[in-house]
Amino acid sequence: MSAAVIVFPGSNCDRDAVSALSLHTTGEVHRVWHRDTDLPKVDLVILPGGFSYGDYLRSGAIAARSPIMAAVQAHAKRGALVVGICNGFQILTETHLLPGALMRNAGLKFLCKSTPLRIENADTPFTRAYDDHGETAIPIAHHDGNYFADEDTLDRLEGQGQIVFRYMENPNGSSRDIAGITNKAGNVLGMMPHPERAIDPLTGETGGLAFFKSLARVMT
Amino acid sequence: MKAIVHIRPRSGVLDPQGQAVAGALKHMGFDEVLSARQGKIIELELGDGDEQDVRQRVQKMCEHLLANTVIEDFSISIEA
């Protein structure tokens, strides 16, 4: 059982995502260039972090219109798993695979720090190895992580268990302290924090380990 | 033909960049500034066509790429 990490011009967290998957899940991990039109047969697609297209126009806006994204949309429609991390989350909202938008951080600063999170829903393929309503810490590194959606959408996300990670100390002004959400079907996750950066005590944090262990359970 | 697209944050959407601009103007002594909203302009040079058709096409460009309609409004002006 396998995964694909999409690489856009300007993606810079693709190798960490590949590493994390290779270390903690079995099965092949493919790096797929954004100009390809076909995906290999995989269970999981990751849209990694970075600065695709230099954040030109809007973060993730141009990447969302890349040739590979039609295949990613079809993969999502079939119910297969998609994870968008940071720039990947931005791309998912731009493709409307997830609702809402990610805006400039309310405090205007680029934030790069470990961030305490609450797991709001451990009943997802992405969070089963976490304690439900438990706490963890995962680093964020973003300038445009302020999650926005209209009140009706936010109420629906709350009511349908689509909020998966919430900031315990909101760093960027995100509505309802949202750090990560799924779509209604629960197979597409977008999150601003970087779990692939938190899997080894060598780099100081391990809050992302349970994320990849959750995926490993689903992918075998 | 030229199309000039103005993109601005929708009212009700937080615009901290606009707030920073207003703050800076006030610090410079422009006390009359009550608020600022920051948007962007995209100028498109287009091949010739019927103005109505051109406007419709540019409208699509805005809806499908140039503006994120969740958080932005846009307006289009066409120059021959």
Task: Provide structural commentary.
The complex is a heterodimer of chains A (220) and B (80). Chain A has helices at residues 14-24, 69-77, 87-94, 151-159, 209-218; strands spanning 3-7, 29-33, 44-47, 81-85, 101-103, 111-119, 135-142, 146-148, 163-167, 178-182, 188-191. Chain A has one domain (3-218): Rossmann fold, CATH 3.40.50. Chain A has 220 residues and is an alpha/beta fold. In chain A, strand 10 (178-182) and strand 11 (188-191) form a beta hairpin. Chain A has a 9-stranded mixed beta sheet with strand order 2-1-3-4-11-10-9-6-7, sandwiched between helices. In chain A, strands 5-8 form a two-stranded antiparallel ribbon. Chain B is α+β, with helices and mostly antiparallel strands and 80 residues long. Chain B has one domain (2-79): Mth169, Chain: A. Chain B has helices at 16-27, 51-66; strands spanning 2-9, 40-45, 72-79. Chain B has a 3-stranded antiparallel beta sheet, with helices on one face. Chain A binds chain B through residues 57-58, 61-62, 65, 93-94, 99-101, 103-108, 146, 148-149, 173, and chain B through 13-14, 16-17, 20, 65-66, 68, 70-71.
Integer average pLDDT of chain B = 96
CATH superfamily of chain B: Phosphoribosylformylglycinamidine synthase subunit PurS
Strand % of chain A is 25-35%
Order of helices and strands of chain A: EHEEHEHEEEEHEEEH
Order of strands side by side in the largest beta sheet of chain A?
2-1-3-4-11-10-9-6-7
The end-to-end span of chain B amounts to 5 Å
| Approximate strand percentage of chain B | 25-35%
What structural category arises from helix and sheet content of chain B?
A: alpha+beta
Give me the Rg of chain B, rounded: 16 Å
The CATH first-level class of chain B comes to Alpha Beta
- Structural class of chain A comes to alpha/beta
Largest sheet of chain A: 9 strands, mixed
Q: Largest interface, counted with CB-CB under 8 A?
A: A-B, 20 and 10 residues
Count the domains of chain B: 1
Give me the oligomer status: heterodimer
What CATH architecture of chain B would you give?
2-Layer Sandwich
Q: In total, how many beta strands of chain A?
A: 11
Shape of chain B: elongated
